[in-house]
Specification:
Length: about 100
């Protein structure tokens, strides 16, 4: 069995993080275009999981909180302004290894 290559792992993780950040504007646009509260919750859930897995804890937490808020509103109506602000802050950070 081959030995674990930490440098290769870090490079791969950095590539995944870069891809996630590059796709984040499209993910936020998709959230705005959801047709139902269930679809919005599903998108928020996926965003929270992906962000958390890649080390973007604040974005993950914000998405989870918004997912919960949408459950508290019968029509699923929530404001995505907090999510936008968090995403903007993350995109402005230099891309560093986790």
């Amino acid at each position: 069995m081959a030995a674990f290559d930490e440098a290769a792992y870090q490079r791969g993780l950095l590539q995944l993080r870069e891809r996630f950040l590059n796709e984040l504007p499209q993910r936020l646009a998709a959230l705005r275009q959801t047709q139902t509260a269930d679809a919005m919750r599903a998108e928020l859930h996926r965003l929270a999981g992906a962000a958390g897995s890649l080390g973007f804890a604040e974005l993950s937490q914000t998405a989870r909180e918004l997912e919960q808020q949408s459950l508290d509103h019968a029509d699923g109506a929530i404001s995505l302004a907090r999510l936008d602000a968090c995403a903007s802050k993350i995109r402005a950070l230099p891309n560093q290894p986790v």
